[in-house]
Amino acid sequence: MWQSLGLTLLVIVATLVCALLFMMFGWYVVWQLFLSKFKFLRELVGDAGTPQAETQPSEAQSERKSGAPLRSRGRTARQRVSFPENAS
């Protein structure tokens, strides 16, 4: 009798631990992929990190204030065209 009761308690505790670990892993994955992009949720959790999504708008605002055109901001090295100075 005590063995079956102990086994039942062990199964219940193991099930709760597995469910808790699964929920924590799911929260971590969703946080890394999606939720950490929202400043409001980062403030609620108390995360002091600054992801790239937050730094990009500040760069755009600083370029608008400095008068730089927005089209030239997003160009990569592949999109830039360089002409040789002496083509002879």
TrEMBL record:
Residues annotated as transmembrane: 6-30
Record key words, sorted: Membrane, Transmembrane, Transmembrane helix
Region (Disordered): 49-88
Membrane is among the record's keywords: yes
InterPro entries, sorted: DUF4750
Entry-linked PANTHER family: SMALL INTEGRAL MEMBRANE PROTEIN 13
Name the UniProt record assigns to this protein: Small integral membrane protein 13
